[in-house]
Amino acid sequence: MRIRMVLRGVLAAVLLAAAIPAKPQNQPAADNPLNQLAWLTGGKWVADGEKGPDGKPFHVESTIEWGDNGHVIKFTTRFREDGKLVPVYTGIYAWHPAKKTIVFLYTDNHGSLTEGEAAMSGDRLEQQFQIIGADGVAHPFRSTIVRRGPDEYDWAVLRQKEGKWEEMFGLKYRRQRD
Description:
mainly beta; Lipocalin; 10-stranded antiparallel beta barrel; 1 helix; 10 strands; 55% strand
């Protein structure tokens, strides 16, 4: 008799827990520091540049989305090459609890690894990073993303040359909603 009552209590607790709606797994917790970057997620960010590394006009598309655990933002950046979209960068943003900052890490299709830190201030996302080439040599960079509205941002990349930071290039991104 006592076992039956205990089993009923356990069963009631399980049924009650199942009836409580769970937070979707791909949504961040309310106090997640990555929420500062939530505006970037969803849809496809598209930009066209006049002059790429090869001197020709180029087209780039980035998809940015929450990871399933709600504590990572994933991104993939593709460039149009010979009429096809080719994945070039794949990476993540995450909160680094010891550094108390947002960090990012991505690889490219040539074997380079990029690692850096990001800080959102108002409508500006400031990033400092280094690209470590497949040869093992690290090169420092900075970038600034300025949010111009819910579906538009400007992006500028700076490199260090002779001890000074100079802008390498800039792009205007627009979001295409699904």
